[in-house]
Amino acid sequence: MIKSSLALSEYEVFSDFAGNFNLSGKAVLEIGGCLPYEYIKGCNPKVWVAVDPRNEDKTLNEQYKSVKGFAQLIPAPNNTYDYIFSCNAFHHISQFEQAVKEFFRVLKPNGVVYSNFGPIWSAPDGSHLENVNYNGKVYNFWENRIVPDWYHLIYNCREIFDILSSRLEYGLAKTIAEYIYLSSWLNRMEYEDYSRILKKSPFKIEFFEGTTELGYEVTLPDYDNPYEWKVKEWKERVGDRLNDYRLRDLKICLRKV
Ligand SMILES: C[S@@+](CC[C@H](N)C(=O)[O-])C[C@H]1O[C@@H](n2cnc3c(N)ncnc32)[C@H](O)[C@@H]1O
Questions:
Q1: pLDDT digit string (tens) for 138-177?
Q2: SS3 of 11, please?
């Protein structure tokens, strides 16, 4: 049975997928990644094709191929795959609506999209610092959380910089503020955007839930915040939708009917 969960590692996400669907003899397309062959061979799919802009074009054997490509322009004919699998990638796909159209096109009738990913942009830690390098130190949201809940949604670049630089050195505060506002690593879609696009799509939504779990410890610097009042103002504006903004990782299961 599919249940919402954090997309902690590709092994865990793949195990959940393989535990819910029988992949034996099936054609599977992986979007945004390249799972190790060792993970998939025991499930004996007919083919596994992994598409990612960072992949090399490489055929490992008759069963497994990696392809350099994009979800918005999948290099495959119509009705090719039984399953689409994706781990921690959907929140990185720009023009997501176009990608969903491609998923529908390349799936066979009754085919399934399974994806677990996050944190999404609207989440408390949706600024999603990942591999941010400053002076030889790498900052990841799950290890060195620097940005308090929803500050990337509440404050502009200057305000974030002012807050961060009250405790962090100038260069680090600038690097983080620039990353939040300029990085194209995330698609910046909010929970409502996913919901709208999936409901509008021709897919039957079999599962679409998010989790508020965190999965790591948070110790934030004790910032001076001259703009504290903006938090209250933002929460009032968001109102009842605050629960949607608490959702971090989403799990999606769609069927082509
Ligand atoms: C955080 S990584 C996840 C990789 C792997 N699935 C994992 O769980 O470790 C996100 C991946 O999505 C890929 N990606 C970004 N935009 C994409 C697109 N338009 N189509 C396919 N993959 C994309 C990135 O290149 C990156 O490899």
A1: 999 999 889 999 999 999 999 999 999 999 999 999 999 9
A2: helix
* C-beta of 53 in contact with ligand 1 (< 6 A): yes
- The 3-class secondary structure across 75-114, one letter per residue, is CCCCCCEEEEEEECCHHHCCCHHHHHHHHHHHEEEEEEEE
Angle, helices 157-164 vs 170-182, to 10°: value is 150
Task: Give the strand pairing for 132-134 and 137-139.
Answer: antiparallel
Helical ranges in the chain per DSSP H = 10-20, 37-41, 96-106, 151-154, 157-164, 170-182, 191-200, 229-238, 242-245
Nearest residue by C-alpha to atom 23 in ligand 1: 32
pLDDT digits 0-9 by tens, 118-136? 999 999 999 999 999 999 9
Structural domains of the chain, ranges and CATH numbers in brackets? 10-119+187-215+248-255 (3.40.50.150), 132-185+219-244 (no CATH)
* 85 touches 27 (CB < 8 A): no
pTM exceeding the 0.85 threshold for the entire prediction: yes
Atom of ligand 1 nearest to the CA of 32: 22
Mutation choice for ligand 1 from 5, 29, 52, CB with most ligand atoms inside 8 A? 52
Does residue 60 have a pLDDT over 90?
A: yes
Q: Probe ligand 1: pick from 88, 91, 121, 130, max atoms within 8 Å of CB?
A: 88
Q: At what angle do helices 191-200 and 96-106 cross, to 10 degrees?
A: 40
